[in-house]
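By way of example, what follows is a protein record of this kind.
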Amino acid sequence: MENIEILPIQIKEHYNVISGLMHLLHLHEHSLHNKTALWPDIENSYMRHVIKMQEECEGLCLLAYVNSVPVGFIFGYVEEQDDSRIEIHEGKELYISDGFVSEEYRRVGIYRMLNETLERHYINQGIKRIVRFTLVNNTNMRQFLEEEEYVVTRLLYEKWL
């Protein structure tokens, strides 16, 4: 893989690129879980949400380019926890909400580079806890997270009526 570049971007300035990659992310998630909303149904509200989180919650979006072509992204933002939670309170935490690499560019370390760059940015700012979710049957992501020393601490159970 030649010339991989990871750059911080403003989502609203790269709306179409991030929305397009989010669309591919949602298609993949929908293939794993049929209750995942279809991107055209949620694009406007979800993009409005991530733009707001970037602007108001110290959000960072990194875009990966291969030979100047955008091929993947990762996005996270800071959440301030209050003392009502049951874990030890450590202050601000990083929530990594979205990330994706186009299929033809997978398995060459791009997502790992995105993740390491994002984590390093927030660790340098004093973040002590990183939180993320993935679908239980997304075995590739679960394997990646375990390799990166993430630990499963809670399981979400759903009952659709």
